[in-house]
Design a protein that fits this description.
Shape: globular
Helix content: 25-40%
Number of helices: 11
Largest sheet: 10 strands, mixed
CATH topology of the largest domain: Isopropylmalate Dehydrogenase
Structural class: alpha/beta
Bound molecules: nicotinamide-adenine-dinucleotide
Number of strands: 12
């Protein structure tokens, strides 16, 4: 069966890793017609916006996209295209698995957890303003609807993947109303899943426990900002941003992208690790129901990692981006 899939190469290191992922996925033999569309700073002059309508239309039409990272200017300029895309398409669940990989030396073994991050509200709602010249205010939005929806997603994911425990992460001791509502929603949803163990944890304690004993955790569900931070921490437990994939899931569309950003200082050097986007491609194949092909890519990745010959700099090797993709394709 064939698919049409939107491909947003992104900017910075985006185009080179996106090309690597496209080649690996094409090597499965699945017939994919890649609809390549550009977004970000580079298209502002052409379309008057970093997120043109035809990009959103393409994702809506195809239902699935693979995306490279897009740069967001710091402190000024346009709002994050990544956040705008998730909000426009209502991609409410950001799913970021962190799993120990063969051959990658880290401080931990046996990490196998999933961060489920609420993707549409919290401080990412983008409601902020200056209060006079010397103060600024950002508004944190938490709703019952979005909180229950993301918690239900986390429990359903736990059921589907045979996972045992869901931990809700919050700061309800301080933000009694907003995070309090998130926690209340998590407890309500947890009651619907008596077979899955439930606990809640304050975000600072969660960070400490994750670096002490990450193997104790399974599915973590949390509001947007904590999810952004904790998922980078979890990437660090299993080998860093170079190996951390992600999925943004909504009811009508899904966008698969690495956790990392556009790493501009490495752009165009054919140097960075393509695994995060390749593993995002594996999540995409699973989402499409192509588990056999997803497993094939995963097996090839594991073999390359276990051999340790074709690794990029971040994993202690000297391979290029394209060279690592070639090695994976050869194993397939
Ligand atoms: P970053 O993730 O781009 O890079 C931080 C560092 O991590 C890099 O300098 C590099 O050392 C390492 N790194 C990242 N990806 C790697 C890879 N594939 N292989 C090897 N090493 C890798 O974070 P940043 O520098 O804070 O952000 C750069 C830009 O990316 C910013 O504009 C930010 O807004 C944007 N960003 C975009 C997304 C997205 O598109 N979803 C996500 C995060 C950040």
């Amino acid at each position: 069966m064939g698919y049409t899939i939107t491909l947003i190469p992104g900017d910075g290191i985006g185009p080179e890793i996106a090309e690597a992922a496209r080649r690996v996925i094409d090597a499965t033999g699945i017939a994919i017609d890649w609809e390549v569309v550009e977004a970000g700073e580079a298209v502002i002059d052409r379309y008057g916006t970093p997120l043109p309508d035809h990009v959103l239309e393409s994702i809506k039409r195809n239902g699935v996209a693979l995306k490279g990272p897009l740069t967001t200017p710091v402190g000024q300029g346009f709002r994050s295209v990544n956040v705008a895309l998730r909000q426009s398409l209502n991609l409410y669940a950001n799913v970021r698995p962190a799993r120990s990989l063969p051959g990658i030396k880290t401080r931990y073994e046996h990490v196998d957890l999933v961060v489920v991050r609420e993707n549409t509200e919290d401080l990412y709602a983008g409601i902020e303003h200056r209060v006079g010249r010397d103060a600024a205010e950002s508004i944190k939005i938490i709703t019952r609807e979005a909180s229950e929806r993301i918690c239900r997603y986390a429990f359903e994911l736990a059921c589907k993947q045979g996972r045992k425990k869901v931990t809700a992460v919050h700061k309800a001791n301080i933000m009694k109303l907003s995070d309090g509502l998130f926690l209340e929603s998590a407890r309500k949803v947890a009651a619907e899943y008596p077979d899955i163990e439930f606990e809640d944890m304050i975000v600072d304690a969660m960070c400490m426990k994750l670096v002490q004993a990450p193997e104790n955790y399974d599915v973590l569900v949390m509001p947007n900002l904590y999810g952004d931070i904790v998922s980078d921490l979890c990437a660090g437990l299993v080998g860093g941003l170079g190996v951390a994939p992600g999925a943004n899931i909504g009811t009508g569309a899904a966008v698969f992208e690495p956790v990392h950003g556009s790493a501009p200082k490495h752009a165009g050097k054919n140097k960075v690790n393509p695994l995060a986007i390749i593993l995002s491609g594996v999540l995409m194949l699973q989402h499409l129901g192509e588990s056999r092909h997803a497993d094939r890519v995963m097996r090839a990745v594991n073999e390359v990692l276990a051999e340790g010959k074709d690794l990029t700099y971040d994993l202690g090797g000297t391979a290029t981006t394209s060279g690592m993709a070639d090695a994976i394709i050869k194993k397939m």
